[in-house]
Write the structure tokens for this entry.
Amino acid sequence: MEIKANAKGSRFIEVTAQHLDTIKKYSLFHDLVGSDGFVDETTLDKLQGTVRALLENGNDRDKDLLDLCFDVIYHRDMKALGLRNLMLLYISYNDENSMELDLEGFSSEDMILEGEDAEEE
């Protein structure tokens, strides 16, 4: 699976099912997006800070978390648009795989999806 990392569509980030499962395992999107539903560079900084704290608190031996960091979260092309697309991929992945999606603290799912619809118009 790939997510578009820039508006032109010339840069992509490869995301695997294991990356998405790791996001779920650590609830990385929990309370990440504010009530306005906007994903911006501040949101990406918050996610990177959360991951950094997890690594500093002893999860630095979790290969899946390290792979997620190197391959996706700290990818050189990861920006706010890439994070937004990662969140949309995460939502659709959970829907397709009938996995129970913890929407507690991820209430902006509808707002993110509405933002995607508005962009298309």
About this structure: The first helix runs from residue 17 to 25. The chain has five helices and two strands.
